[in-house]
From TrEMBL:
Record-linked Pfam families: HTH_1 (PF00126), LysR_substrate (PF03466)
Claim: Glycosyltransferase is one of the keywords in the record: no
Gene3D superfamilies assigned: 3.40.190.290, Winged helix-like DNA-binding domain superfamily/Winged helix DNA-binding domain (1.10.10.10)
UniProt keyword annotations, A-Z: DNA-binding, Transcription, Transcription regulation
Protein name from the UniProt record: LysR family transcriptional regulator
Boundaries of every HTH lysR-type domain copy: 1-58
Superkingdom in the source lineage: Bacteria
Homology family: Belongs to the LysR transcriptional regulatory family.
One annotated GO molecular function: DNA-binding transcription factor activity
InterPro entries the UniProt entry points to: LysR_HTH_N, LysR_subst-bd, WH-like_DNA-bd_sf, WH_DNA-bd_sf
Length: 298
């Protein structure tokens, strides 16, 4: 018996009618009748007999059915697997990201990923760390990608990259703009306070405290983008992640490495009871590569 024979036999066996079998299989009744006749011709015996307008299985059909049922279930399993594989190939990657990723790294990673997976769709939203758990619980995103996200019960983290922290300063501040600056050198200047902006700012301010440095700060902001814009207008210096620094480049602003180097972990956060899709797992190395590439270009 061929696969089509098995499908038709199974449908008629359960429905007792050519018409209902055709409806189940989404084909015409003549097609069902023709396939049944072909199956019976190959087998050399009848599978059904008519009785009071119904098709009743013959003894031979009853004998065949257990094996046919097993084959039919396997066939349905193959079809289901094929559908899932197609959904993965043409599916959706649903992410909530730190705003810093939106400047260049996410666009670059998606552009490179879609060269290999042109049918995959992306849905993105920007969030801050304190919104991560609600976003995941409410199924607004599959994965939240953030700087050093909090550890919540019922969640797991995925390591993605270590993002360097850079110093931004107005070029006119130094006659010979340095390529490296220490925190003590930054603390001697007007330093824009980003201690309440999230993990990057908190990391910088902890380092300042550990070194017992007291920076001069006349401005306090809660986003790295605003801090970078303040630097562009000569209002001070700041220390922010390399992705935000690259995304806010300005002709009047210089970027320096911190000495000693500082970096902040970029991690993905997802619910423990919901494994990441294969597509999302496949995308993360592209993002890590893009972050490394962009950070090294500064």
């Amino acid at each position: 018996m061929r696969l089509r024979h098995i499908e038709v036999f199974h449908a008629i066996y359960h429905s007792g009618s050519l018409t209902r079998a055709a409806q189940v299989l989404h084909i015409s009744q003549p097609a069902v009748s023709k396939t049944l006749a072909h199956a019976e011709q190959q087998l050399g015996f009848k599978l059904f007999k008519r009785s009071k307008g119904k098709l009743l299985p013959t003894e031979e059909a009853h004998a065949l059915f257990p094996q046919v049922e097993q084959l039919y279930r396997q066939l349905q399993g193959v079809k289901s697997l094929a559908t899932n594989l197609q959904r993965d190939a043409e599916g959706l990657i649903d992410l909530a990201i730190s705003p810093a990723l939106g400047f260049d790294s996410i666009p670059l990673a998606i552009a490179q990923f879609q060269q290999a997976h042109p049918k995959v769709r992306f849905r993105l939203q920007t969030i801050h760390n304190d919104e991560a758990l609600t976003t995941l619980i409410e199924r607004k995103a599959e994965l939240a990608i953030l700087f050093d996200p909090p550890s919540y019960p019922g969640t797991e983290t995925v390591e993605i990259a270590q993002v360097p922290i850079k110093a931004l300063y107005p070029k006119r501040l130094f006659a010979d703009p340095p390529a490296r600056l220490s925190l003590s050198q930054l603390a001697e200047q007007q330093l824009i306070d980003i201690s309440d902006s999230g993990p990057v700012g908190q990391l910088v301010w902890r380092q300042l405290q550990e070194q017992q440095l007291q920076p001069h700060s006349q401005q306090q902001v809660d986003t790295y983008f605003i801090a970078a814009r303040f630097v562009a207008y000569g209002l001070g210096c700041c220390a922010i992640d390399a992705l935000s620094a690259r995304g806010n480049r300005n002709a009047d602003v210089a970027v320096a490495d911190l000495q000693p180097a500082l970096s902040c972990p970029l991690q993905g956060l997802h619910l423990s009871n919901k494994s990441l899709t294969k597509l999302t797992q496949a995308f993360l190395p592209y993002l890590a590569k893009a972050i490394t590439q962009l950070s090294n270009e500064l």
